[in-house]
Amino acid sequence: MKDSVAARYWRTNLKIMAVLLLIWAVAGFGLGIIGAPALNEIRLGGFPLGFWFAQQGSIIVFVLLIGIYAALMNRVDDRHHRELQEERSGEAGK
Amino acid sequence: MSVSAWTYLFVGLSFSLYLGIAWRSRVRDTRGFFVAGRGVPAMANGMATAADWMSAASFISMAGLISMMGYAGGVYLMGWTGGYVLLALLLAPYLRKFGKFTVPDFIGDRYDSNIARVVAVLCAVFISFVYVAGQMRGVGVVFSRFLEVDINVGVVIGMAIVFVYATLGGMKGITWTQVAQYWVLITAFLVPAIAISIRLTGHALPQVGMGAELLDSASGGSVYLLDKLNQIHADLGFASYTDAFASERWNRLNVGLTALALMVGTAGLPHVLVRFYTVKNVKAARWSAFWALFFISMLYLTAPATAAFARYYMIDSLQGQSRQELPAWFESWEQTGLIAWFDDGDNRLRYSAGEDNEVFRSGSMAAARMQALATSHQRWLDGASGEDARPELREAGLSGPDRDIIVLATPEMAGLSAWIIALMAAGGLAAALSTASGLLLVVSSSVAHDLYYRIINPQASEARRLAVGRATIGLAVVVAGIFGIYPPGFVAEVVAFAFGLAAASFFPALVLGIFSRRVGTVPAVSGMVVGIGFTAAYIIGNRFFGMPAWCFGISAQAIGSVGMLLNFAVALLLVPFCKPPGPSVQQLIDRIREPEGSGPGVDIEIAPGQ
């Protein structure tokens, strides 16, 4: 029983990580590098968009990603903590 | 007050602040010495990490590098920030949960092998020394440029300061000093950037100003700064500022792989990793990574704006001017050799990418040779027997101003008063000293903890280990200072080496150690050895022995990415043939994955002096 709580926690963790790392790759390598020449055709005020992503946008995305990760994972940690406690009190009640 | 009076005042004030903090947070045990007693709040640790990370190179050279490279400068911006995402998601929380002192500690315990531990110690020491040599040199350069003292005297002063607060306070002293150093360096960086942004575009936010229209455009109509810059570049024969992959050297593959190598290298640098051992718990480690990148992004989002402003302003205020019309800052920086003008005889300065370029730098050329060239060039101009110096300088690759001038001269370009220029000196020193101290601590902990305590003398008492720690850090300061005074002539190459090694050694070993249960000693050590061996051979061969970039034309800076992939590949391919890790290691893996029950932080060391 204890194993499945830990395993569930680990699966949630891996899922969150995979999604965020995908966004990381798309923002940094996709928009900032691979797609930069195409995006440079689009303008954001005085910025060609590909250039903006390489020098500004990607960094902003990176900061946000870590913020989201910390907020989400710390909440998952709390839930995990509650589940472990319930499980322990359940075992004690038997 | 003169610039140098202000500089002495600011540098003196900031140095006494650092020493005061060190005195208040002096430590008595090894936990305080190596990991600050594990009581540093997330936000303060983030700030310290930011100061630790942003070196003299980030502060003085990066904006200039971007200024010269245009779009491709983005590899440094993305590379040195994107690594924190990897660090936060893949490493920081688990290393905190593991809860020992150093990175070699983790490698040694997880792979249950002293060979792995020693390989990790060697990598950590090598990477740190490579880095710290550059920092000590940076301290000397700042002193010599702003205070006109000899470079070596500057290095010695820097050594003395680091020696005092690092041996006294260990990680704890270093942490709180770095928090103070962050504020000094970020203020010094932002104030001139904001001032030049207001002057050129009327926007107080440099990030907005960079994409805005120029205030007084010669053509009368409103022109975007970046468009104007592209147009100037086209007129003078330089590659476009905003176009991607404008030069052969920075093609798509090299831009991508360099960014990746820098990211992965960042995530594998021991002096950054060790900072996450110092926070209270796993949750604080996550927030701490967020704050670290947040504080770093303050500088990294501003640097590209400074780069574009200074590039435009520099060309605009110099091009076509006669000797008498040149702005005052040109002359003051001409004396330092960062910029030099070799006229073709028409008394009009011309900066271009072609053979008619007249702007050079002294760079690595000996001062005497530079002087001789200038004299001979002047004779040539006067119609006497001298010689045109420009072809020789062009041959030597010294066309254009030194990139450091972009940051160093920005306050003067923006017409700021003397005290701001002095603030830059204090900022540059803060950047160099904070990074140097973090690195020296890694050297000390690797030798005193991993090598001495874990391998040579496991029975050593607490007092003895602390003494060995202090002695190594003292010795490391002296060695670093000697490197600063007699710099190896290949610092830039060696820094690429440090990132490549961190990428090819630590990162895969750490990630596999946390996320795979099946990778044991043999695959991990073979992976590290192959990764390091390949990366080292490629960089040394390419940079020192003229070996062509045979691997798809990948540059030495980018090869760490390939080394990392090789490390992963070798380790994973060997897994089916090797014994999986034993039960004690399986328990260790379970323990670091489980967020509950991390060791407590120590209350008394939450703030200095309490």
How are the secondary structure elements laid out?
The complex is a heterodimer of chains A (94) and B (610).
Chain A: H1 2-34, H2 36-39, E1 43-44, E2 47-48, H3 49-93
Antiparallel strand pairs in A: 1-2
Chain B: H1 3-24, H2 30-35, H3 42-53, H4 56-69, H5 74-98, H6 103-110, H7 114-147, H8 151-201, H9 206-209, H10 225-236, H11 252-267, H12 270-273, H13 282-318, H14 328-334, E1 340-341, E2 359-360, H15 367-381, H16 390-395, H17 405-408, H18 410-413, H19 418-456, H20 462-485, H21 491-504, H22 506-515, H23 521-544, H24 559-574, H25 583-593
Antiparallel strand pairs in B: 1-2
Please give the count of helices of chain B: 25
Query: What average pLDDT do the residues of chain B reach?
Result: 83
- The CATH superfamily of the largest domain in chain B appears as Sodium/glucose cotransporter
Strand content of chain A is: under 5%
How would you describe this structure to a colleague?
In chain A, 87% of the residues lie in helices and 4% in strands. By secondary structure, chain A is mainly α. Chain A has one domain. Chain A has a two-stranded antiparallel sheet with strand order 1-2. The longest helix of chain A has 45 residues, at 49-93. Chain A is rod-shaped, with a radius of gyration of 20 Å. The relative contact order of chain A is 0.14. In chain B, 69% of the residues lie in helices and 1% in strands. The radius of gyration of chain B is 25 Å and the shape is globular. In chain B, helix 5 (74-98) packs antiparallel against helix 13 (282-318) and helix 19 crosses helix 20 (462-485). Chain B has a two-stranded antiparallel sheet with strand order 1-2. With 610 residues, chain B is an all-alpha fold. Chain B contains 25 helices and two strands. Chain B has two domains: 3-313 and 413-595, Sodium/glucose cotransporter (Up-down Bundle); 339-400, no CATH class. Chain B has helices at 3-24, 30-35, 42-53, 56-69, 74-98, 103-110, 114-147, 151-201, 206-209, 225-236, 252-267, 270-273, 282-318, 328-334, 367-381, 390-395, 405-408, 410-413, 418-456, 462-485, 491-504, 506-515, 521-544, 559-574, 583-593; strands at residues 340-341, 359-360. Classes of the chains: A mainly alpha (94), B mainly alpha (610). Chains A and B meet through helix 1, strand 2 and helix 3 of A and helix 5, helix 10, helix 11 and helix 13 of B.
